[in-house]
Amino acid sequence: MSDSALMFDPVPGLRLATAAAGIRYTHRDDLALFEFVDGTQCAAVFTRNAFRAAPVMVAERHLAARAPRFLLINAGNANAGTGTRGLADAEAACAALAELAGEDPRAVLPFSTGVIGEPLPVARIRAALPGLLAGLDERAWPAAARAILTTDTRAKLVSRRFQVAGRTAALTGIAKGSGMIRPDMATMLAFLATDAAVEPSLLRRCLAEAVDRSFNAITVDGDTSTNDACVLAATGRLGGPAIADPGSADYRALADAVTEVCEALAEAIIRDGEGATKLVTLVIEEAADQDEARRVADAIAHSPLVKTALFASDPNWGRILAAVGRAGLSGLAIAAVRIWLGEVLIVTDGGRAPDYTEEAGRAVMAAPEILIRVALGRGRVTTRVLTCDLSYDYVRINAEYRS
Amino acid sequence: MSDSALMFDPVPGLRLATAAAGIRYTHRDDLALFEFVDGTQCAAVFTRNAFRAAPVMVAERHLAARAPRFLLINAGNANAGTGTRGLADAEAACAALAELAGEDPRAVLPFSTGVIGEPLPVARIRAALPGLLAGLDERAWPAAARAILTTDTRAKLVSRRFQVAGRTAALTGIAKGSGMIRPDMATMLAFLATDAAVEPSLLRRCLAEAVDRSFNAITVDGDTSTNDACVLAATGRLGGPAIADPGSADYRALADAVTEVCEALAEAIIRDGEGATKLVTLVIEEAADQDEARRVADAIAHSPLVKTALFASDPNWGRILAAVGRAGLSGLAIAAVRIWLGEVLIVTDGGRAPDYTEEAGRAVMAAPEILIRVALGRGRVTTRVLTCDLSYDYVRINAEYRS
């Protein structure tokens, strides 16, 4: 576990605690608790996988009922594919915490990540709750960032400050995710909080926009998880009136900061992709619309042939060309398509660019960060997707996980 | 190179030859020639990848102009992503052969497989042509099956006999393909021939039906190739009138035999999938239509998480459940979905089946051939797709290929 940069700002109005509940791992914390001050507003987005995990369903229901006071997050067990028992288990964990804290059970949002299909060990979680409540601390962000990890090798913790009516607001977020990463709504798990006061509908809008540009634009393996969730909390402890005008400079400052934190966390997830050795940015330009731009990006990002060539630092651009060709764009004129590796034009007029040299391609592919740019010649829409390569370690990690 | 079973029937009216042209490989044949007797009818299907290779475009054009006399097939170079030069090279190879044989250049169909984006070494092909023409032999099927391989480890050669008006007709086919296998029309390359006489439109129908049930229902890595092509030739040397009635017993016998040969070749491709250690059959039942059945099959077959679990013989059924959930079926009622590993029910009512035991799951996954069956509870449509696992060797083969 290497935590490259765990600098962060605490968020007034929010305390955290972690514990080693022994859910799956030994010798490490695997349970995290967020406590919000009364009056905190929360927005959340959840996975679109049809097999949504029990905690996702419970969290969504609780959030619809009232403003949350607690987030209860466990690693090691996803409580997904667990049917009605999974729902009862998630509710039982919320109820146990609520009873100890003297709160409504619906004030607790549960989140789980880990192995699918195993019953949640509720008794172990229950046993850890008194210690969690006793240990709440405004500065426990790094411990929480570590406690929610599964196959991740690095904690992901990002802070930004922004100005609201002359005051400096804090914004801090954590995320986990390394495999089963092709978020369709939000990534595996991400939690952000600010001390600014924000009107609820604007908080939801701010989160939706940020997620679309960050977590929904990354993919490790094309496998959308059953447990994806992203929460943005605004404690209001900064003081002053709530941000309520979407045209205001305050909202712009908030929205930019939230997007920046989400993008930084999303990039950290890709850098920590299972077995990843390369950070790959795909830019698809001149598309007719977002849908076709995204289809081309996905065809490249999910091609095992492209991903293994990236791992080998091999400028095997024919595999990129083949992926563009199979993306299913109707009436694609291949003579209009251009493909670049970094700044090097590799494909034009349906074939290899006249000036292209293998040496130039190799130089781009040798770097740890690679840009692949595709211009489709069909319109003016651009999209950007982050992905990584496919290495021996991806196979090892996923063949060994659970064993 | 192990050729498990290269028993075959020659097809009267068809001769073959192979040569070592040094296109990319050394110490092996990499060029194959088919010569058809005058009067032979040919049907063919080609890739739907937008970046179709030059030989695919030329072969389609030549086939539209007249009945072919020759198929000229090289391995080691795909002549794809080669622009206008690629088209000129494919035409030049056809013209060189036609001149030697005293034939129309359009009587030659070119096929290429191998690395994308390199110019076709036409001079080496031209130099090998006189030897090919001199060496034509009705019994050279096994040599041709070997000459067209790239990363394949086994030759793929299948024969069936069928009855036409009391005569026994021969049907023999070869195929190659191991990676970039997710045919969308036909697989990488497959060539079938019969000595029965078949009316041209019926021959096309027969091939289209067979391909849909065989090559279009397999996937190694989801990467549709630029060079996929499948040809079915009918020499007519069996004698008797051409099969012309789609309702006749003769047509049924032909169609069944062609489908059987295509299915056997398609299965051989999956068994020889790059790095494959498992043959996996996906059966999706109770779908509302073919499209959604196929989407569920593809989501499972292309999930790197499912494929690595298969490699590890790990009954990690949560990954299968997550793949079904992300297939994008609108309004999927997860309580109605059942999933089986072999005969073992693993998922029902949104979670693990009550009787499921890890031991039972492990027993199924330990076998070299695995059946995954998913019932969606939405309709009466069934589809069947063959795929394989994702192993270290897949990464090795594709990281090293070209290096």
UniProtKB/TrEMBL annotation, chains A, B:
Pathway: Amino-acid biosynthesis; L-arginine biosynthesis; N(2)-acetyl-L-ornithine from L-glutamate: step 1/4; Amino-acid biosynthesis; L-arginine biosynthesis; L-ornithine and N-acetyl-L-glutamate from L-glutamate and N(2)-acetyl-L-ornithine (cyclic): step 1/1. The record marks 186-187 as: Cleavage. It catalyses: N(2)-acetyl-L-ornithine + L-glutamate = N-acetyl-L-glutamate + L-ornithine; L-glutamate + acetyl-CoA = N-acetyl-L-glutamate + CoA + H(+). Its EC number is 2.3.1.35, 2.3.1.1. Gene3D superfamilies: ArgJ beta chain, C-terminal domain (3.10.20.340), L-amino peptidase D-ALA esterase/amidase (3.60.70.12). The record marks 113-114 as: Involved in the stabilization of negative charge on the oxyanion by the formation of the oxyanion hole. The active site is at 187 (nucleophile). InterPro entries: Arg_biosynth_ArgJ, ArgJ-like_dom_sf, ArgJ_beta_C. Keywords: Acyltransferase, Amino-acid biosynthesis, Arginine biosynthesis, Autocatalytic cleavage, Cytoplasm, Multifunctional enzyme, Transferase. Belongs to the ArgJ family. Heterotetramer of two alpha and two beta chains. This is Arginine biosynthesis bifunctional protein ArgJ.
